[in-house]
Amino acid sequence: MKPLRFAVTTSHKQTSDLVDGAKQIAGELAARYVERNKRSLGTLSEDLGVAGMLVVASKKISFVSRAGEFFFHPGLAGLRINELKNGKTDQMIDAMSIDAGDSVLDCTLGLGTDAVVASYAVGNNGRVVGLENSPVIAYLVKSGLASYPEADGDTAAAMRRVEVVQADHRDYLRKLPAGSFDVVYFDPMFRLPGRRSPAINALRVLADSEPLGRETINLAVKIANKRVVVKERRDSAEFGRLGFEKIHGGRYAPVVYGVINCQGL
Ligand SMILES: C[S@@+](CC[C@H](N)C(=O)[O-])C[C@H]1O[C@@H](n2cnc3c(N)ncnc32)[C@H](O)[C@@H]1O
Q1: What is the largest CA-CA distance in the chain?
Q2: Which among 109, 157, 209, 259 could bridge 189 via Cys, Cβ 3.0 to 4.6 Å?
């Protein structure tokens, strides 16, 4: 993944707290801090020759580029958790076949929606680690999961338990001992078509969009005690290419889950 050129600034309302916060974030992400000085984000990006600006405001940190604004929100996590509470099926949780106390390695964290639902399912005694290759996404999602104010009790607790690690899963998986997690999960960008969804377009600028390699799946199979699960379009040729024979999901669902059962392998 090519390093992204970006800089950090504040919203127009430039208090000393916001400036201190923006400088600290710039330090953490090894990026440049620039004074906003009433300039537009477009002007700043152009003057600095960067792909986008990380903007620190009093209630939100977001990444603004020509493609739009990217910021943390938990997506459908709360709704999916409520459905699980009401005894409904979540296809991802079913495909993972996880129980309370299990450990899940989410190799493609993104906004963390799937990781939060998995975190609810494994509960207090379980563990979910989310890997994200983009430093900006990892930063925004880590701080969002830790502090998002609008989630209800169980969803908020599930969010706080997800451990975010900024890493390329290809490197991370190589260093893990066999059997380190019960489930290893992938939801690659590659699946997402070039839609006109503003949220996806804003994410795309930041995200690692490389397709999964067969070698990565082979590593995941060694690391998973129970299952390796990949989310893809139902008609995707990726399942065949990556060696997934068992497909899990609703009969008419456009997106389904490829499963490799690792027990007894
Ligand atoms: C489709 S999004 C995942 C969405 C996520 N399942 C959710 O519920 O929000 C894919 C994410 O995986 C990340 N990613 C892709 N390849 C990666 C890699 N090799 N290592 C770590 N993260 C990766 C991308 O940067 C992107 O943020």
Answers
A1: 62
A2: 209
